[in-house]
Specification:
Blueprint lengths: L2 H9 L15 H7 L1 H8 L14 H18 L2
Helix pairs in contact: 2-3
């Protein structure tokens, strides 16, 4: 395999997301790979489960109240 062939193959490899790490992709790379192929390769195949943070019902209600107050006060 020539160096040019090797480099071309390397350009077509999409680095996968790793749990607990931050990946960034350049727009020109995504365009080269194709958006649909990129999304099929990189995105999770199953739903992401968000763990319970252990807040009580009352705490959740208070947080909702605070968010509503901030929306009103900040014109969100």
């Amino acid at each position: 395999m020539t160096q040019a062939t090797y480099q071309k193959k390397q350009q077509n490899i999409i680095p996968l997301l790793q749990k607990g790490k931050t990946n960034s992709y350049r727009p020109e790379d995504i365009k080269r790979w194709g958006v649909e192929y990129f999304m099929d390769t990189v995105c999770a195949k199953e739903d992401i489960v968000i763990p319970s943070l252990g807040f009580t019902v009352e705490e959740n209600e208070r947080m909702e109240e605070i968010l509503k107050e901030e929306e009103v006060n900040n014109d969100i």
